[in-house]
Input
Amino acid sequence: MTSELSAVAKRLDHAIQSATATHQLPADQQVDAATGYAIQAMGVELRQQRGERIVGVKLGLTSRAKMEQVGVDEVTWGRLTDAMRREEGGTLVRADFIHPRAEPEIAFVLGRRLTGDVSLAEAALAIEAVAPAIEIIDSRYENFKFSLSDVVADNSSSAAFFIGGYARPDTDIANLGMVLSINRRPREVGSSAAILGHPLRSLVAAARMTARAGHVLEPGDIVLAGAATAAVPLASGMQVEAEVQNLGRVRFDVR
Output
């Protein structure tokens, strides 16, 4: 069984490196979420063998808009590596991805360890800073179609991310307006309240869900709380910007 899971992880990793879509898990090989996370861990280990370093985690499918967009109904998580982080205001090369999409998010930077079942208050005390962010998701599956186990195995579609300037950890993020603009025109508008009702709940979920896999959130880790709106497909020539009320902006160009 381990060899079969490893083969799936290697196939997904090849899809990432070659920017070529691969097929979904066959119907007769569908696995549960726990097995999907095992495949995810194998895939991230392949990245680490190439020299990448884990710098945090992302939460996926944290808004009703995202769940409806991809047709699943459960929050997921994936690992972030240093190779995924891109310079704010920089350039994203479209050819490096299969079918990339951008979504506006809030990022947390942790100042202390956070793991297991924690309260909202404990999660808040662990934050060192908050910031506006854009995550680039890029399912490695054909036609951007997948089941819950598919997406979990695929590191929850995580591909790249941009983070803007840091704000104080006690900034009120409960109900902030969030706008994703393409070529300076608003494309998606939402509220941080769409992220599980409050972005802090994503941090609580991250601590709980990652602990199940033996993963601990450490000081300095980045946690992407999840999207407040549906994701927007990217094409060369786009200027992409996310503005989060009271937090600021983050932007990049697509080449």
